[in-house]
Each structure stands twice: as C-alpha cells, then as structure tokens.
Amino acid sequence: MTKFINGEAPHRARKRFGQNFLVDQNVLDRILRAVNPSAGQHLVEIGPGKGALTSLLAEAAERLTVIELDRDLVPWLKVKFERYPGFELFQADALKFDFAALAGEAEPLRIVGNLPYNISTPLIFHLLACASQVQDMHFMLQKEVVQRMAAQPGDKAYGRLGIMVQYYCKVENLFEVPPGAFAPAPKVDSAVVRLVPHQNLPYPAQHLKTLEKLVNVAFQQRRKTLRNALKQLLPVELIDELPVDTGLRPENISLETFVDLSNVIGDLDALPEP
Q: Residue 175 sits in which domain range?
C-alpha cells in the first residue's frame, strides 16, 4: 500500500535525477498564473516530483499528462491524482519521450516543468523538434541557461542555445527564483522562462541541418572570427564571396544573418558529409 506522510510522498531527492523539489507556494502560484490554464487545453508536465505544481495544474486543467523518470515516485503520484479523470502518467525518460505522439491536430500541447538542470539543454533541443505541435512551454531552469536562451547579439551569453531556441520560439524571461524556494536548495539561482513557438518562422532556413552545423561550428571557438570557423565548411575562395563581414565574431552576428548564410552555404552543397 502506498503511504503518505502529511499528504506527501516520503521521498528523498536524488542527485542522479537532478531532483530539487519546488516548495515555495508563492513561486508555485506565480508559475500557475504565468501558465494560466483554461478549458480544453492539454497540459504536459515534465518531472512532477512530489506533485506540488501538479496539484495546481490538475485543478485547473481538463487534461494533464505527466512524465516522471523516478520509478519510486510513480505509485505515489498515481494515488494522489487518480481522482482527476483527465490525469495520465508515463514513467519515462523525457529525453526519449515522443511528445509529438501526445498532440492532436486541434489540440497543441502546453508543456510545463521544473527541469533537471543536468539535462535541461538537450531536453530543450529534443522539445524544439516538435515545436509545431506546441502552443507554449514554461520551464524552471538554471538562471544562466535562461539568460543564454534570451541573449541577443553582443551579449556575453549569446550563443548556439539562444540562436536555435529563438529560431523556433519567442523567448520571455519571466522571473527569477532563489535557491531557498527548493528542497534541497540548489547551488545556483533559477528562473522561469516562457517559450512560444512561432506560428510562422521569422527567418525560415532552407537548409535546417546546414544552419545547425554552421551555428555549432561558429561557437566552438567563439572568440575567433566567423571566417576562421567557416574554413571548416567552405573553400577560402567561397568564403570571400559571402554576403557578410567574416571578420566579425560569431557573438556579434544575428539569427537572421546566420540563417541567410546557411541558405547560401546549403545552396552551394558544400558541407562535408558527417
């Protein structure tokens, strides 16, 4: 029989799962207001943990799907939320989960989560792959990661993560959360971010794989010039013909320019086979 202590699962946070449970009610309420669920929406929570935010979402949403990796938390979550007819639980690794399979044509997903900081970046890239089937995403992340996602050209935090997230989504850095809002308290500050996928991409890439390769190569050595990075992709004589100042550093080049460059390079069919 599943046991609860004061209505909560007697569970210790596990470092290997990156568990830091959000316990500050004011922060939980603020996240709920930011998400603002309404009737007819399909919410998906990644990493419900002990269900603090899940409780608020389940009351507000007609349909709530949660994805939890920790097998020990699954039976407690099932018991705690079995009275909600729209509640569904998957014991699964979010990095491997097929989120697109949850979405219906007329029912885009609204994804929420206090993401484990040790997998946040690869998980964001995994979710971007199904951005067209998502209405929005609200995540608790390490403050530094949110700053990178929202960074603009010239910012110290500007790089691959921000460019690729902004290619797919509008990024809003909503508010910061101190370590004391969690149990156990992490060693870093956190922040809540809203990602809203573009209905129409502002700068469509004709060769998406080329864009990904270009941005990745450019920021491998971010202090060097774009020309230096492009030498891995193009012959020197073609670099000189590109419609951009290749003497600039990648951190000073906009998303629009990166997309334009990827379109030119892709048309040249010059990328080496991986």
A: 15-197
